C-alpha cells in the first residue's frame, strides 16, 4: 500500500514539474536569436532555481554572446567556434536545472537515425566544448561526454533519441526500460539525453543534448 502511494505521489510530482518546465521546452523547440526570445508568462518567484547566468568562459571561447530574457527565466549563450561549428546553450528550468546544448556542425554527415554514428559524434562535440563551460552546474559536461562514450560502448542496442543516461553508475545505467516504478525516482537524479538530431541543409546538421536535474 505504501509503495503504491509513493509511486503515485512521485508520478504527480513528475507531472507537475513537466507542466512548470514547459517554458524550457518551448524555448528549445525554437532556435532563437537574441531578438526573438519571448517572455514565458511566469515570474522568477514561481521557481525554485536561481536566475540563469552565463556558463561559457569567454577566455576560452571569445566572442561568445549571452542573453537573459526580460522575465529572468531563460538564459542563452551563442558560441562560434574557429572550426566553423556553432553552439546555442539554453539555460532554463523552473523546478529543475536544465542546460540544452544545440550544436550546429558541417563536420559530420549521416542519416539522422543512424545512432551508432551520432552518439560518438555527440560525445566528441561535448568533449570539445567542456573546457569552456563553467563547472557551476549540478553536473559536469566533461563527465557527460565521458559517460556518453561509455554508454555507447556498453549499450549499443539502446541508442535512440531521448534515452536517459545517468551519472551515478559506471558503466552508466539504462533505466528507461524499467517497469517497476523506479524510473520515477531516477527522474529526480542528474541525467542527460540526446533530444534531437536534424539535417539543417545539405551539409549542416544540428545535434541537441539536454542535461537536467530536478530541484
Task: Write out key terms for the chains shown.
215 residues; alpha+beta; 7-stranded antiparallel sheet; 29% helix; globular; disordered N terminus
Count up the helices.
Answer: 5
Structural class: alpha+beta
How many strand units? 7
Largest sheet, in brief, is: 7 strands, antiparallel
Q: What does the average pLDDT come to?
A: 77
Task: List segments where confidence is low: pLDDT < 50 over at least 5 consecutive residues.
Answer: 1-23, 25-39, 175-182
Query: How are the strands of the largest sheet arranged?
Result: 1-2-3-4-7-6-5
- SSE pattern: HHEEEEHHEHEE
The shape, in one word, is: globular
Query: Ends: how far apart?
Result: 27 Å
Give the fraction of residues assigned to helices: 25-40%
Report on this model:
It is a single chain. With 215 residues, this protein is an alpha+beta fold. It contains five helices and seven strands; from the N terminus they run ααββββααβαββ. The protein has helices spanning 2-20, 22-29, 115-130, 141-154, 182-186; strands at residues 65-68, 75-80, 86-92, 96-105, 165-166, 191-199, 205-214. The protein has a seven-stranded antiparallel β-sheet with strand order 1-2-3-4-7-6-5, sandwiched between helices. A hairpin with a 5-residue loop joins strand 6 (191-199) and strand 7 (205-214). It starts with a helix and ends with a strand. 29% of the residues are buried. Residues 1-23, 25-39 and 175-182 have low confidence and may be disordered.
List the helices and strands and how they pair.
Layout: H1 2-20, H2 22-29, E1 65-68, E2 75-80, E3 86-92, E4 96-105, H3 115-130, H4 141-154, E5 165-166, H5 182-186, E6 191-199, E7 205-214
Antiparallel strand pairs: 1-2, 2-3, 3-4, 4-7, 5-6, 6-7
Helix pairs in contact: 3-4
Amino acid at each position: 500500500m505504501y509503495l503504491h502511494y509513493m509511486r503515485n505521489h512521485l508520478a504527480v510530482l513528475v507531472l507537475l514539474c513537466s507542466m512548470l518546465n514547459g517554458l524550457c521546452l518551448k524555448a528549445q523547440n525554437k532556435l532563437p536569436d537574441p531578438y526573438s526570445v519571448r517572455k514565458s508568462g511566469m515570474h522568477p518567484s514561481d521557481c525554485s532555481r536561481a536566475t540563469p547566468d552565463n556558463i561559457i568562459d569567454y577566455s576560452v571561447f571569445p566572442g561568445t554572446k549571452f542573453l537573459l530574457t526580460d522575465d529572468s527565466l531563460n538564459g542563452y549563450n551563442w558560441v562560434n567556434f574557429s572550426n566553423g561549428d556553432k553552439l546555442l546553450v539554453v539555460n532554463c528550468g523552473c523546478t529543475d536545472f536544465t542546460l540544452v546544448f544545440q550544436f550546429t556542425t558541417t563536420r559530420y554527415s549521416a542519416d539522422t537515425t543512424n545512432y551508432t554514428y551520432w552518439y560518438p559524434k555527440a560525445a566528441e562535440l561535448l568533449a570539445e566544448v567542456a573546457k569552456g563551460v563553467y563547472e557551476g552546474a549540478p553536473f559536469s559536461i566533461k563527465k557527460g561526454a565521458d559517460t556518453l562514450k561509455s554508454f555507447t560502448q556498453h549499450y549499443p542496442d539502446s541508442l535512440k533519441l531521448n534515452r536517459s543516461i545517468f551519472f551515478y553508475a559506471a558503466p552508466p545505467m539504462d533505466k528507461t526500460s524499467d517497469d517497476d516504478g523506479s524510473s520515477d525516482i531516477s527522474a529526480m537524479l542528474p541525467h542527460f539525453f540526446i533530444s534531437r538530431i536534424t539535417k539543417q541543409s545539405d551539409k549542416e546538421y544540428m545535434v541537441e543534448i539536454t542535461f537536467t536535474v530536478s530541484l
